[in-house]
Design goal:
Elements: E1 4-10, E2 15-16, E3 21-26, E4 29-35, E5 41-45, E6 53-60, H1 62-65, E7 74-80, E8 87-88, E9 91-94, E10 97-100
Parallel strand pairs: 1-8, 1-9
Antiparallel strand pairs: 1-2, 1-5, 3-4, 3-6, 6-7, 9-10
């Protein structure tokens, strides 16, 4: 399993959000890319180890939410302090809001 994983849940529809492109970035470089599966998850996003530092997950939500969605892209910036710990960063998404937290 990769060090960073994510999933997107569509709070308005009450189901996983499939087909959302996700990028893991650091220092302006793309480290990994993936797309949420039928369960709304990206299980293999990036290497098994990442150096401590600041990273970003960028979610391309525009196509999923369509023209009425307020957030065409969501960027979550987070810090990795323990290079060997698993970091799960989920998104709860709706057309006009989103929430994130450090998951398990």
């Amino acid at each position: 399993m990769s060090l960073v994983t994510t999933h997107v849940l569509d709070a308005a529809k009450g189901r996983p959000a499939a087909g959302i492109a996700v990028r893991l970035e650091s220092g302006g470089k793309v480290l990994a890319e993936g797309v949420t599966d039928d369960d709304g998850r990206v299980r293999n996003l990036g290497p098994d180890e990442l150096a401590p530092g600041v990273y970003r997950l960028v979610f391309d939500t525009g196509e999923y939410l369509g023209p009425d969605g307020f957030f065409p892209e969501i960027t979550v910036t987070f810090r990795i302090a323990d290079a060997q710990a698993h970091h799960h960063v989920p998104i709860l998404l709706s057309p006009h809001s989103y929430t994130t937290y450090r998951g398990s």
